[in-house]
Each structure stands twice: as structure tokens, then as C-alpha cells.
């Protein structure tokens, strides 16, 4: 057996390639220091900087989501919805979490949201921002299409958009909300705290694609807003708006207003203005359309003030309905007080029926300026009606110490004092509620306020009886009659001040009345501003609208007639209207 020869193993490392012992030590030291540095850094990050790093990580992926509260529903007195909130979606982005969006997806996003690509890129460019809206209040279907693009950093959230079923006929009462859901006008603004509720919150962790990974805190649920039940009756509101619009159009008037009150509670059953606007579509919205004229506009009420002058005299015991007055023209200083259709003499009842300026001014002269001012103030003139409505007017009643005799005379028939239509309608509750001035309410009352006594109940009864004659043959507002009911009220016509002077071609026509006159249920006040054709006297332009609104409203409420069954309206061709001094 032969043996295999194995040569001896030789050292193949050349001498010049060997490390000197000193160099090996240096390398070992450097490696040790590097390992020590890495270990120290790891300890520093894991122990010393742990909380900071965790917070930084959560800051990049932790998000606090707002859970929107559902805004409270607004209803009429019968539960009919007048303002409701419908769920919609809003698309937002977090630029800090986004990478450049591919061109194809950017084009698709631009098309879906109807936004220019340049605008989207500008929103994405600020990498310091964590939240920016791309499009608000879009349909859930459209939001789903956007999310299907799968663009990291883009998300959706639920919001609510306000919808107004009554549209333009109630826009001045309800108002509207902005895109952020906060009230901007009307009761949406004044009842913001009640309607808005309180938003909730949810804190979550999200991945880079915007998907929720987990909740990191307890969810705080939203608290929805409360339901607001108004005093408005939607049926009467519709009727009032329709008839006011028709009257404004028929007389080619600049504007108009109407107020319907419950004569026994002071609740506002209807309030409308023309022109109006649709709160569901505010793309074109002029300031004049938004103006709630019945609440904020001031005007001189003309002859609709005469019942208060007469009531002051009767309540003080200085006159009776049968007291006679010389009603021929007479002088107060250099000024002449006259009636447009003079009568040599009239009783107090005749002064109301024929709308005599002379008679009214002579009754006012029985009182000192302070006494008359006090009575007007007690009737609600010159002070806010405190309805709670934004921007409501208090009217203007100058301090009595500055009155001249001719000014006291003109104030007795409605010049020199200004009112709002809502304020004037409220004042007539003195005649319908036993002499007490009722507070106004835009919300449905569980327990009505009895009001504040201004005149005796017997005075109010006598005024009701006298004011019926205004709508009967020979009165100034026969067109305000309602078949089957006794109607009491007063017409008024006033020239408008333009540049400090009374214009001869600009008037306001008014009628304020109530029915059934023997047991009042409703007060209706109608104002037509600057009628340009067909007349301008209050009985002519406002009387017919009053009649239609009152007749329809009484039927809606099922109010029993108080007039004889054979009661008939005066035919149009037989109407001989008594014109009022303007």
C-alpha cells in the first residue's frame, strides 16, 4: 500500500501584507468606539428621547376628527318642517402626508371636483399644512368616486347642508346658514346656540394612505341641536305671501309687507315681504331681497294712528263715540289742518270712519304733549317690540319737550312718528285683547303672556265697534270686507320723505285690521310701498290683500262667522271710497 505524499503547508502571506501589531490595536479600538457610539445612540433614543419620538410619530399619523352635530329642525306650529339638515360629504387633503399626485389621477380629481388642476396643485404644495378643504358639501355618490381614485392624503368627512322646504315665502323669517353651518340671517342666526348643538370628536391613527388604523382615545359623540317650533302657521304663511306678491305686482309697487298675529296671544302666524329670495339658491342675492321690511323698515303710519288718538280721549273720559266736533279746516299757526273730503262736523265715530285729520288733531289738543307722548309710549311706539328678531326697528317718537303745536296735531294722524309694520300690528292688540298690549313671539307659546294694560276693557270694546264702520259703506276701506265676518280696522296713506321733503308721487298704502270684530281672532297688517298704478290709498291697495288673507286664514283656523248669514259684500261698482289726507 503506497502512501500519498502531502507537501508541508507554507505561510503564503507575504511579509509586506502583514499588519503590524500596533495597527491591529488601532482598528480594534475604532471598531469598539463605533459600536459604543451606536449603543449609546440607541440607548438615548430608546430611553431619553422615547416620549418625544412617540409624540412626533403620532403627530404625523394621529388625527383628531370632528364629528359634526346635526343642526336642529325648525318647524311651524303644527310640526311641518321649515328647515332641515341633509347629510353631505366634504373632501379634504393633508398636504404634509401627500406625495406628488400622478397626472392621470390629478386630471380625474380635477374633473370630479370641477376645480382647475392648478388650483389643486397649489393646495397640495404647502407641505406644512395638515388640513385643507378641496370641495365642501358634495353628494355622497360624488365623494365615493373621489375616494375611489385612491390618492394618499385625501379623505372625506360627513357634514350637513341646510334645506328650506318653504323656500322664498319664509326666507325673511327663517334666514339661512353659511357653508360652515352657522346661522347668517333670521331665526337661524338668533337661535344659533339652540339649533347648532355641539360637535363631537374622534382621535385616530391613520396610515400614509389616510386609512384609519385604530382609535387612540374615547370617542366624544356629538350633541344634536334642539328642535325649534315656531309660532308660524305654514298654511297662513303661504296665503299671506301669495296675496302680498299678487298685490305688489298688481299695483307695480316697489315692495310690500304683511304681518298676521294671533289677536289673543301675540304669536306671529305669518310674516312676509316682497321682494323675496330663495334660501336654497343664493347664487344671485341682492341686498334688497334680503331686507326684512316688515321688521326693520320705518315709515310714517298715516291714519292708522288715529285709533290710538281716539282711544286716548275715550279712556281719559274726555270724549265718547257720540261726541261731535267741528271738522272744517282750521289754522295752527301758519299751517292749515284739513281733510281731503271735508265734512262740517263729525262724531268721534265719524272721525274714525271718514278718517278726519281735523277731528283727530282736535282730540289730541285736549292733552299736553307729555300726556300724549306717554300714551304713545305705553302703546309700544318709539320702543323696540322685543320680538327677538335681528335688526328689529323701534321706530321714532321724539321727546315731547321738543313738540310744537302743529307737530302734536300731525302726530295724531300719523306724521312725525315712525313705526315698523310689526310694531304697528302689535299695537293693535290693545283693541283685540281687552286693552292690553301683548308681547310678540315667533315661537309657539305653551302659556301666553297676558300683556300690559294700556286702556280699559270698555275702551277697547268701544274702539272695536267704531272701527267696524271703516269697512262698511261710507268708510275708507270697504274693500277690506270679509264675507260672513265683521271686520274692524283702519286704513292709512302716507307720503314718503325724499330728501327732507314729502314727495307727491311716492306713497305707502296701509291697512291694519282684525276679525271677527266681536271676538277678535286675527290681526292682519298690510303695507304696499310706492304703488305706481291703480291708486295709492291704503284702502285701495292694501284693503283687497287684507280681505283675501283674513278670509282664507279664518277658514283655515275654522273660526265661526259673526256676521248675519245674509251679509254680502258691497259690489265693486258701488264702492265710493273716502280718500284720506296725505
UniProtKB/TrEMBL annotation:
Residues 68-215 form the Penicillin-binding protein dimerisation domain. Residues 256-550 form the Penicillin-binding protein transpeptidase domain. It is found in: Membrane. It is an enzyme of class 3 (hydrolase). Gene3D superfamilies: 3.30.450.330, DD-peptidase/beta-lactamase superfamily, Penicillin-binding protein 2a (Domain 2). Keywords: Carboxypeptidase, Cell cycle, Cell division, Cell inner membrane, Cell membrane, Cell shape, Cell wall biogenesis/degradation, Hydrolase, Membrane, Peptidoglycan synthesis, Protease, Septation, Transmembrane, Transmembrane helix. Its main location: membrane. The active site is at residue 303. Its EC number is 3.4.16.4. It catalyses: Preferential cleavage: (Ac)2-L-Lys-D-Ala-|-D-Ala. Also transpeptidation of peptidyl-alanyl moieties that are N-acyl substituents of D-alanine. Pathway: Cell wall biogenesis; peptidoglycan biosynthesis. InterPro entries: Beta-lactam/transpept, Beta-lactam/transpept-like, FtsI_transpept, PBP_dimer, PBP_dimer_sf, PCN-bd_Tpept. Catalyzes cross-linking of the peptidoglycan cell wall at the division septum. Belongs to the transpeptidase family. FtsI subfamily. PANTHER family: PEPTIDOGLYCAN D,D-TRANSPEPTIDASE, PEPTIDOGLYCAN D,D-TRANSPEPTIDASE FTSI. This is Peptidoglycan D,D-transpeptidase FtsI. It comes from Vogesella oryzagri.
